[in-house]
Hints:
- This protein is α+β, with helices and mostly antiparallel strands.
- It has a single domain, classed as RRM (RNA recognition motif) domain (Alpha-Beta Plaits).
- It is built from four helices and eight strands, in the order E-E-H-E-H-E-E-H-E-E-E-H.
- It has a four-stranded antiparallel β-sheet with strand order 4-5-3-8, with helices on one face. The protein has a two-stranded antiparallel sheet with strand order 1-2.
- Strand 4 and strand 5 form a beta hairpin.
- Keywords: Repeat, RNA-binding.
- GO terms for molecular function: RNA binding.
Amino acid sequence: MLNFTPLNNKPVRIMYSNRDPSTRTSAAANIFIKNLDKSIDNKALHDTFSAFGNVISCKVAMDSSGQSKGYGYMHFEQQETAQDAIKKLNGMALNDKVVYVGPFLRKREREMQTMKARRSFLMFF
């Protein structure tokens, strides 16, 4: 198993090749995790979430010095698996830090949600 084996001081990521662009770009089975402890790397995140089902890809965001930025992404094979992971892990402690686990939203979708929330807040007052 070569996945997560260091090569030039960086862990190797090995994934199946998938030529169907609809499965690569679909966000239905993608989740976003934030407030990760700095010690959690790709392998630790993969090991935690793979208990829910087949993980297609997993990535912890890193800065230029190789330190975790405290958030990451997970792409599951099935949407139901992603939803189950969100339900069970959101608000749980990983390495003594409570993490947020939710559906991945593209920047445009996040901006739309923010605008809707502002509008409803202004209507309330």
